[in-house]
Amino acid sequence: MVQENQTQFTDFxxxxxxxxxNQEGLLFGLFLSMYLVTMFGNLLIMFVVxxxxxxxxxxxxxxSNLSFVDTCVVTxxxxxxxxxxxxxxxYISYAECVTQMFFFLFFASIDNFLLASMAxxxxxxxxxxxxxxxxxSSWFCGLLVILSWSLAFLNSFLLSVMVTHLSFCTNQQxxxxxxxxxxxxxxxxxxxxxxxxxLYFLAGLLGVxxxxxxxYSYIQIASSxxxxxxxxxxxxxxxTCGSHLCVVSLFYxxxxxVYLTSSFTNTSWKSTVVSAIYAVVTPMxxxxxxxxxxxxxxxxxxxxxxxxxxxx
Length: 312
Hints:
Helix content: over 70%
CATH superfamily: Rhodopsin 7-helix transmembrane proteins
Structural class: mainly alpha
Largest sheet: 3 strands, mixed
Oligomer: single chain
CATH class: Mainly Alpha
């Protein structure tokens, strides 16, 4: 039977966590709590960095950009999840699905590039401290952010445009809680070989390049720390990049977990849970990792609270 191209009329069905139909109320409360905590934590980081002159440095400029992008990542997916749980309507239109996919790819890609930029910042601070002000100037930090946004836009735009040329049938079920690109490609009636080639090419070119840059930076950092004679000096140098190393590990480990789970298991529930950790839990934990492990952030929060107290 010949399947028509019904792209413009297609509604997809987000199955969400369909394996747990009796726990939708609990899941609604869980996702709402994580969303509110994520927004509060990241907005707090942005406010503290913006309001405290001690934090007007390249490292915290990049951190505030990361916090902003994390709020965008969760806003791309979580409100739709909450609305679906609340209304019991799991349908998502073709246009809305492609839009959600574009913005998720966009902001997740920016996360990737910003983490690489922050690794370079730590590399310069530890390996070339005397040239830090020169190498991490304001214009160069701005260039890193602009480049991150530009490359991320190009990546998500190309992948999304390729999807718009595919044909879909009606009432397609997405085994996920948002319109993830690999899940969309599985539902197409068209030949998706070119889409997969472009997906893996861009993932390798941009994702692996960023990961290798981070790895190289930390190899150089470790080499420099080893050469520091005192234990206290080694600890002080390592503490300046400890928070970033935790965030990088969490980011890439969850991404690896998503692909590993989807490749070696047929259980959509497990794959969806791992994806939720990557898409929702990681942005929630990032500000707390920096706030709890970073003495400058904690000191800035204390100064902010003391100013509020004294003004009352």
